[in-house]
C-alpha cells in the first residue's frame, strides 16, 4: 500500500466531517429552532410563568419557598428536598445507594422534620417528601405530600382547610393520557393560585 | 388507575408502538442502504467529500474510511473543546482541560457519551450543537454503516465488496437520522422541552429568591441523543431535567426513540439477506432479554428492599415525581441495554440488585437490542458463536446464512466479543488496585465497588451512563475510561469488518437436512442462552463483589 491512499482517505474524512457538521450542527438546530419558536414559542423559551407582570420562574423548574432566614416558609406548599436548593445550574442527585447509611440517616432526619413542620404523624409522610429527585429541580410533589401540607398552609394563611383542599384538587394532575408517569402537583402553580386567593 | 396497571399499560404501549413501526422503518432502512439512486443534496455532499459514491470498497478500504473519519472526528472535537472560550456562544465558559477534552471527544465519537463534565456549567452552545450534537449524528451513522457492511458480508457471495462507507454514512445521516430527529425534536418542544439560543436569564421568584432559568438548543439535541443511542445530556441531570424531558408523554417518546432503530435493524438485516424470518429470530432474542430486564428492575424498584428506601417508604431517591417508579425503571433498562446511557433517574440510587441488572445489560455487550448498528453487529457476532457451539454439539461444520463458519471466522468473532470484557475487568482491576477507584467513590462497601465496575462496563461497552456518584473527572479516570471507550468501540469494528470481508468472499453452502434452522425459535433460545452464559461466566465474580453482595445483604 502506498502512502497516498491513507492520506487521501484522511483528507476525504476531514471534508466529510466539515460538510456533515454544516448539515447536522448548523442547518438542523437552526431549522428546529425556527419551527419550534414560531409554533411553540412559549414552551421553546422555557414555559415561563408570570405574576405581578414579571417572570417569577418556569412551570417546569421547581423553586425554594423559604422565608427571609432561608427556612421553609409555612405559608407556602413546600417542594421535595434538593441538595442544590433548586439551582438550575447544578442539577443532579445525591448519588447515594438504596442501602447507604448516610442516605438512611438523611431520610430519617427529613421525615421527622417534615412531620413536625406539618403537624402530622411520621407515618403519614410519603416517600417523595423525604427523598431528593433526580434533577434536584423537580417541579412536582405527589398528591399525598400536598395533602399533608394543607392544614399547615391553611392555618398560616388564615384560610379554611376546605379552600386550600380545593386548590390542591384543582392542581392535581392525573397521569399523562391516564397511564403515563405519576399523579402530581405542580408546586409553583399551586402556590401562585394560593397567592391569588390570599390576595 | 392503579400503579401496576399503569406500568403494564406503559410497557404494552411501548411494545405495540415498536411492533407497528419496525416493519416500515426496517424495510425503509434496507431500501436506503440498497438503493442505487442518490438525492441531489447527497450528490453535493459527495462532491464536497471528493468520493465516488458508487465505488465498492473491500474491507481494508471500508475500515480505513471508518477509522479515518472517527480519528478526524476526535481531533476536531478535542480542538473545539480546547478553544471554546475563544469562540462565540461560549456563554463565558472556560476551555475544557486537556484530559477531560480527550475523554469527551473520544466519548462522543465512540457513541458512548460518557460525561465527566456537567453540561450546564461547562459547555457553551457552540460546543453543544457544532461539536457534540454532530457526533451524536455521525457516530450513530458510523455504527449503522458497519452493521450494514457486515450484513452485506452475509448477503453477498464470491466478492469481497462491502459497499461504500461514505455513501452509507451520508445516507444513514440524511435519510434516516435527520428526518426522525427533526420530527421528534419538534414534538418534544410541543411537550415543553426548550429550544432557543439564549444564555438563559435570572428571574426573581415570589419569595424574592433569584433563580437562573437556563436556555439552549435542548430539544434538537435531546432527539438525536436518544435516537442515535448516544446519551450525552445537555444538562448534568440528563433526561431527568424537565427541560429535556418535561412529562410522561415525552418520557415514553424518548424511550421509544432509544429503542426504535435497534429493534428495527433486524428487519433490515432480514430484508437484506433475503429472509425476514432470520431477522425475527434475532429480534426475538433481543426482545426477550430486554423484557426480562424491564420486568426485573420494575419489580425490584417497587419492592425497594434497600434500608434507606424502606425508611423512606419507597425507592424515590434520585427519581422524578412525574415519571414515578415505572417510568424510571423502563427508561433505565432501555438506556443501559441500548448502549445509550441517557438517564431519567440516577442509577446509583437504584436498589442493589437493580443495579446488577443494569450492569448485566451492558456487559452482555450491548446486544439487547444494543446501540444503533452496534447492537445488530454485536448480536450477529453472538449468532456466529451460537452457530459454532451448536455445530460442536452435533459434530457438523457450522454454517450461518449459507456461509461456512470456519476457523478464521470463529477466531474473528471470538476476538470481537472478548474486547469489552477484557477492558471492563482490566480497567476495574487497575482502578481498584491503584487506589484511584476508592478515592473517587461516593458510596462505601460493595456499592462503591459497583460504581467503579459500572464505569468501566459503561465505557468499554460504549454505553455512557454512570453510577454517577463516582467522581470520574480525574486524570486517571478521564484517561483510562477514554482508552476503554476508544478500544471498546473500534477494535470490535475492526474484527467485524474483517469478518464481513471474509464472509463476502465465500461461495454459498447448500442448505441440507443437517443445517441448523437459524430462523426458528429454537435458535433464538440458543442465542439468548449463549449471550447470557458468556457474559455470566465472565462477570459472575465481579458482579458478586458489587451488586450481588449489596442486594443480598439488604
UniProtKB/TrEMBL annotation, chain A:
Principal localisation: membrane
Keywords: ATP-binding, Cell membrane, Ion transport, Membrane, Nucleotide-binding, Potassium, Potassium transport, Transmembrane, Transmembrane helix, Transport
UniProt-listed Pfam families: KdpC
Keyword Transport included in the entry's annotation: yes
Compartments, record wording: Cell membrane
Assembly description: The system is composed of three essential subunits: KdpA, KdpB and KdpC.
Similarity annotation: Belongs to the KdpC family.
Name the record gives this protein: Potassium-transporting ATPase KdpC subunit
Name of the coding gene: kdpC
TrEMBL record, chain B:
Main location: membrane
Family membership noted in the UniProt record: Belongs to the KdpA family.
Highest rank taxon of the organism: Bacteria
Function: Part of the high-affinity ATP-driven potassium transport (or Kdp) system, which catalyzes the hydrolysis of ATP coupled with the electrogenic transport of potassium into the cytoplasm. This subunit binds the extracellular potassium ions and delivers the ions to the membrane domain of KdpB through an intramembrane tunnel.
TM regions (residue ranges): 12-33, 61-81, 133-155, 176-194, 248-267, 279-300, 376-394, 415-434, 480-501, 522-543
HAMAP family from the UniProt entry: KdpA
InterPro entries to which the protein is assigned, alphabetical: KdpA
Keywords noted in UniProt: Cell membrane, Ion transport, Membrane, Potassium, Potassium transport, Transmembrane, Transmembrane helix, Transport
Cross-referenced NCBIfam families: kdpA
Subcellular locations according to the entry: Cell membrane
MF GO annotations: P-type potassium transmembrane transporter activity; potassium ion binding
Protein name: Potassium-transporting ATPase potassium-binding subunit
Amino acid at each position: 500500500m502506498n502512502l497516498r491512499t491513507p492520506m487521501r482517505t484522511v483528507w476525504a474524512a476531514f471534508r466529510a466531517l466539515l460538510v456533515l457538521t454544516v448539515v447536522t450542527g448548523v442547518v438542523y438546530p437552526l431549522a428546529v429552532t425556527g419551527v419550534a419558536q414560531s409554533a411553540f414559542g412559549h414552551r421553546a423559551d422555557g414555559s415561563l410563568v408570570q405574576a405581578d407582570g414579571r417572570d417569577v420562574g418556569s412551570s417546569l423548574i421547581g423553586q425554594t419557598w423559604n422565608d427571609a432566614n432561608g427556612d421553609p416558609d409555612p405559608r407556602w406548599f413546600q417542594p421535595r428536598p434538593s441538595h442544590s436548593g433548586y439551582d438550575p445550574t447544578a442539577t443532579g442527585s445525591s448519588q447515594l445507594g438504596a442501602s447507604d447509611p448516610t442516605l438512611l440517616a438523611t431520610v430519617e432526619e427529613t421525615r421527622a422534620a417534615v412531620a413536625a413542620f406539618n403537624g402530622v404523624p411520621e407515618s403519614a409522610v410519603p416517600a417523595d417528601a423525604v427523598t431528593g429527585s433526580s434533577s434536584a429541580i423537580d417541579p412536582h410533589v405527589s398528591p399525598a405530600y400536598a395533602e399533608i401540607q394543607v392544614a399547615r398552609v391553611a392555618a398560616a394563611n388564615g384560610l379554611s382547610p376546605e379552600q386550600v383542599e380545593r386548590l390542591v384538587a384543582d392542581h392535581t394532575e392525573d397521569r399523562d393520557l391516564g397511564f403515563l408517569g405519576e399523579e402530581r402537583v405542580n408546586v409553583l402553580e399551586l402556590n401562585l393560585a394560593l397567592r391569588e386567593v390570599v390576595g | 388507575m392503579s400503579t401496576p396497571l399503569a406500568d403494564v399499560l406503559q410497557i404494552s404501549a411501548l411494545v405495540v408502538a415498536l411492533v407497528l413501526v419496525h416493519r416500515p422503518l426496517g424495510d425503509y432502512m434496507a431500501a436506503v442502504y440498497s438503493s442505487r439512486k442518490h438525492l441531489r443534496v447527497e450528490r453535493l455532499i459527495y462532491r464536497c467529500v471528493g468520493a465516488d459514491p458508487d465505488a465498492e470498497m473491500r474491507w481494508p478500504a471500508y475500515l480505513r474510511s471508518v477509522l479515518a473519519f472517527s480519528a478526524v472526528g476526535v481531533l476536531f472535537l478535542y480542538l473545539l473543546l480546547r478553544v471554546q472560550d475563544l469562540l462565540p456562544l461560549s456563554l463565558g465558559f472556560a476551555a475544557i482541560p486537556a484530559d477531560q477534552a480527550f475523554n469527551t471527544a473520544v466519548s462522543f465519537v465512540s457513541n458512548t457519551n460518557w460525561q465527566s463534565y456537567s453540561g450546564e456549567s461547562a459547555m457553551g452552545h457552540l460546543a453543544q450543537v457544532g461539536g457534540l450534537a454532530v457526533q451524536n449524528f455521525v457516530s450513530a451513522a458510523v455504527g449503522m454503516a458497519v452493521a450494514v457492511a457486515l450484513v452485506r458480508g452475509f448477503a453477498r457471495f464470491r466478492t469481497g465488496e462491502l459497499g461504500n462507507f461514505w455513501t452509507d454514512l451520508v445516507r444513514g445521516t440524511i435519510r434516516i437520522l435527520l428526518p426522525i430527529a427533526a420530527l421528534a425534536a419538534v414534538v418534544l418542544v410541543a411537550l415543553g422541552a426548550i429550544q432557543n439560543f439564549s444564555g438563559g436569564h435570572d428571574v426573581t421568584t415570589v419569595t424574592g429568591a433569584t433563580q437562573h432559568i437556563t436556555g439552549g438548543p435542548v430539544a434538537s439535541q435531546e432527539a438525536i441523543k436518544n435516537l442515535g443511542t448516544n446519551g450525552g445530556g445537555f444538562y448534568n441531570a440528563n433526561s431527568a431535567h424537565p427541560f429535556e424531558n418535561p412529562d410522561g408523554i415525552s418520557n415514553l417518546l424518548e424511550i421509544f426513540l432509544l429503542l426504535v432503530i435497534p429493534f428495527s435493524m433486524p428487519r433490515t438485516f432480514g430484508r437484506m439477506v433475503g429472509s425476514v424470518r432470520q431477522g425475527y429470530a434475532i429480534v426475538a432474542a433481543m426482545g426477550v432479554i430486554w423484557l426480562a430486564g424491564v420486568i426485573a428492575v420494575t419489580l425490584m424498584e417497587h419492592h425497594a428492599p434497600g434500608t434507606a428506601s424502606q425508611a423512606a417508604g419507597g425507592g424515590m431517591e434520585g427519581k422524578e415525581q412525574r415519571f414515578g417508579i415505572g417510568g424510571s425503571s423502563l427508561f433505565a433498562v432501555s438506556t443501559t441495554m441500548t448502549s445509550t446511557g441517557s438517564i431519567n433517574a440516577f442509577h446509583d440510587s437504584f436498589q442493589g440488585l437493580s443495579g446488577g441488572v443494569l450492569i448485566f445489560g451492558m456487559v452482555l455487550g450491548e446486544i439487547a437490542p444494543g446501540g444503533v448498528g452496534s447492537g445488530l453487529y454485536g448480536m450477529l457476532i453472538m449468532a456466529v458463536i451460537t452457530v459454532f457451539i451448536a455445530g460442536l454439539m452435533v459434530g457438523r461444520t457450522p454454517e450461518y446464512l449459507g456461509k461456512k463458519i470456519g476457523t478464521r471466522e470463529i477466531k474473528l468473532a471470538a476476538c470481537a466479543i472478548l474486547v469489552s470484557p477484557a477492558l471492563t475487568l482490566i480497567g476495574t482491576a487497575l482502578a481498584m488496585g491503584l487506589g484511584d477507584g476508592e478515592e473517587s467513590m461516593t458510596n462505601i462497601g460493595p456499592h462503591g465497588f459497583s460504581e467503579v465496575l459500572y464505569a468501566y462496563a459503561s465505557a468499554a461497552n460504549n454505553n455512557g451512563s454512570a453510577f454517577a456518584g463516582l467522581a470520574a473527572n480525574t486524570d486517571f479516570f478521564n484517561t483510562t475510561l477514554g482508552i476503554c471507550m476508544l478500544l471498546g468501540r473500534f477494535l470490535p469494528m475492526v474484527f467485524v469488518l474483517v469478518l464481513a470481508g471474509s464472509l463476502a468472499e465465500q461461495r454459498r453452502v447448500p442448505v441440507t437436512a443437517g443445517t441448523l434452522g437459524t430462523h426458528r425459535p429454537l435458535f433464538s433460545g440458543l442465542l439468548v442462552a449463549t449471550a447470557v452464559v458468556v457474559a455470566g461466566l465472565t462477570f459472575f465474580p465481579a458482579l458478586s463483589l458489587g451488586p450481588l453482595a449489596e442486594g443480598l445483604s439488604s
